[in-house]
Structures are given as C-alpha cells and as structure tokens.
Amino acid sequence: MKNWISLFWTYESEIPAGMGFPIFEKAHWLWLAGLLLVSLILLKLAAGRSAVFGEKLAHILGWSLLAMELYRDVVLILIGHYGIYELPLHLCSMAGFLCTLHMLFHKEWMGQVLYTLCLPGAMAALLFPDWVTYPPIHFMTIHGFVFHGTVVLYICLALLRRDIIPSLRALWKPMIFLCVIVPPIYVFNKIVHANYLFINVPSPGSPLVFLEKWFGNPGYLVAYGAIILLVMLGMDVGYMMCNHPLFNSH
Question: Residue 250 has what pLDDT?
Fold first, then answer.
C-alpha cells in the first residue's frame, strides 16, 4: 500500500514491474463491484423519483465526464507525460465527450452511437482494462474505472429516461460514425506509431489478441469489424426483445 501511495502520480513507463493488478482478480473485482453497486443505487433513485432528479443526475454525469477527461489531461501535463499518445482518440474518450454533448443537445444519432458502440465498448474496457500496469490505487486506475463506469451509467440513465431510444432502423448511423472516424485514425496511428481504437495492435489481455493469433495482423481487423457489427446488431435486437409485449405482458 505504501508503494502504491508513493507511485500515485507516476506515469506508466516509470512504474516498476509487478506493481499492476491482474484482470479478474481481487482488486479488479472490487472495482467492478463498487461501480455496479453505486450505479444500481443511482439508477434506482432515478427510477423512483421525479423527472427533475433524473435530469439533474444526467447533467451531473455529463459534466463529470468532461471534468474527468480534463483532469486526466492536466495531471499528465503537470507530470510531463501528455503527448501524441494521450490524445482523446479512443472510443471511450470520445464517448465521454459524446455523453456531454448528448446531455446538452439530445441529438438522436448521438444516442444511437452511445448505445450500440460506446456502451459495449465501455463495458469491455471495464472487463479488460488497458491500465493494469498501474497499481490498484493510482490516479490513472481511478480515472479508468470511474470514467468508464460513468459512461455506462450515463447511457443506462438515458435509456431509463428514454433520452436514448435504440432503433435497428438507425443502425446505419453508428456505422457511418465508424466510417468517418476509423480510416483517419488508422492512418494517424501508422504515422505516429500509436494504437488508438486498437486498430493497429490488439489491446493486451483482450479477446482481440486471440483474433490476431487466428487471422494475423492486419487480418484480424476483418474479424474485429465483423464482431463490432454483430455487437451493434445484438444491442439493438436485445433492446427490441426486452421491449416486446411478449416480455412486458405484466
């Protein structure tokens, strides 16, 4: 614990080996359990109180995501490690900004993107975090879990409030979003040797590693794209089934 405290503001490249936490072990489960508990309490409160409470909570979450992203950037600048590899070009970083914008403007296409892409993306990040080289208590670990957990919570709250209404007919909107952002980021990655969206190299410890073993690189991108499409379809179909009269006969 003392070592964790002394390393709290230390950047990844300067952290001694063995100070991180393995996925699906004690520290990881504790973080996930804590986030789940807080989220369930807040969603239950939002469901049981007035629409004004839900709107205030949505605003708190939306602004908090923006504040957390700015906080992370400021800290990285202060410790001298903000650079080309810390830009907000990962899907979950974009999700934070999209949540804030959706909270302000309630654009329908933003809701579709948040639900079909950002919700499963943030949940996958929580299950397979790429910040495991940091100690369980570290400013980047706290930011990683709380930020992604807040993205999930905001989207779930928006679904509860029907600020987001998923539609299979609107699936083309997140697909267009991907077509707009992926090619330039892929080229940018190649130029600066970055790995935003994990489209140049799979995230360590994630299922993408197995895809790379099976299909090679860049061959795994075809399977990656197919999985994303299936996930988007599954999200919309799952929402339709959950809202079908057959499942809501009561």
Answer: 47
